[in-house]
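Need the bound structure for flavin-adenine dinucleotide, inputs here:
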Amino acid sequence: MTNSYDVIVIGAGPAGYVGAIRCAQLGMRVAVIDEYRRKDGEPSLGGTCLNVGCIPSKALLDSSEHYHRVQSQLGQHGIKVDGVSLDVPQMIKRKDKVVADLTGGIKQLFKANDIEWLQGHGKLLADRQVAFKPHKGKEKTLSADNIILATGSRPIEIGAAPLTGDRIVSSTGAQEFQEVPKRLGVIGAGVIGLEMGSVWNRLGSKVVLLEAQDSFLTPVDQQVAREAKKLFAKQGLEIRQGCRVTETRDGKNISVHYEDKDGKQHMQVDRLVVSVGRRPNTDGLASEDADLLTDERGFVHVNDYCETNIPGVYAVGDVVRGPMLAHKGSEEGVMVAERMAGHAGHVNYDTIPWVIYTDPEIAWVGRTEAQLKAAGIPHRSGTFGFGATGRARAMDQSDGMVKIIAHAETDRILGVHMVGPQTSELIAEATLAMEYEASAEDLARTIHAHPTLSEAVHEAALAVDKRAIHKAN
Ligand code: FAD
Ligand code: AMP
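Answer from helper R.:
Posting the output first, comments after.
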């Protein structure tokens, strides 16, 4: 092992490992330091996203959706299924295998790109040096021309609900239950809380989500959020808003005490998930004399190009400002690598798609109606319900809608918001349209295959100009 590299990346999540691969593609000699270890103690690449985030949560969402469909939806298709039963440990085992396969894939990619994987803790020192403390062995000092900080984030913990390991848990623990809790409480009805709540609700838990804010899904276009909330209620997901959790007591049951507009309340649950957001991993990330600037919430301070205050030191992903999304971090990793190599990498922060993988899925890109109103930007919008598309009807998944918002004068698309089947895939068309600065008319004049769910996008674009075909305008 040499001590000197072109690039050292600290953190092998989707921001760090993607940045590392792009650096290697551009001819740089790269080392990646990562300290993550699986529950069996083995090091594993991929960070939060692959090990305990995006991938395992989607694996469980998929498994639980199959179970729910078989239980309650196949009958309408004329398919009778008797004796369905649930094997939760097998479901968790399959999830673990998906994770192991994908993280193993990154290991192969590192090999193929000659990237050195250093298993242990990394700390930024002054003068572009890094202290590397391996899981086994003595600390070493490494140096590099450029350093990328990509240490990600971890769940926020609250004093009112301290984690207990297996009963009061974060999103990580919520992916490890070996049986279905009869009653599941979730603190925080954000993206992660809704996804975890959906998994266990589909498998049979009575799920109650306690949300501090009075509004539901504040970052989402409120027309879409209202529609989603109605659909979640139909599934039995109970969302209580304006609830401030004050105390939890872990006895035979877990007692959750909270206050809402009517005063003090409490509920009893068998398991509790705390999903109130995430915070950046910057504690002890840099030595004092490295002089790394962080903001008041602990995020590494960066400019639009992810350059920190130290020349040659970059920071990408959840550890810096912006949405905590894997693809946002990956794009930042690519941008930084390309700029190091003298190319013109950039990230368009206005066209980052968001997805909440509930059923139906919620997806959006660009600005909401409320944001446009607040900014005084003249706009008009068109909506179209999936119920009026043949494909959604044939699939028996006709809940939800697409909403397209365009500039009132130029017709340029400013935001696209969806709730409905497979909107995680449909949002890609909207993102591409916005990246190309398309108008609603451009989408309206694009031929969409029939019968597909994408016809709802087409019709919503037509609806902006009040000429949707399959609805009264
Ligand atoms: P991380 O993935 O957090 O990786 C950072 C890595 O750095 C970790 O391996 C960590 O151990 C390591 N590290 C930290 N400090 C050090 C150090 N000092 N030395 C060495 N190593 C260190 N995003 C999506 O886009 N789509 C989704 O569907 C989605 N679902 C999610 C579901 C859940 C349950 C959770 C928790 C998150 C989800 N996210 C999703 C968010 C996504 O996981 C993060 O945005 C993404 O992982 C951030 O990537 P990152 O590379 O910045 O950091
Ligand atoms: P997300 O960041 O999308 O996972 O969302 C986290 C959610 O948790 C947001 O909707 C927050 O309003 C909510 N939240 C934050 N703190 C609390 C709290 N103490 N009690 C209940 N909800 C909270």
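Comments: The radius of gyration is 24 Å. Residues 88-112 form the longest helix (25 residues).
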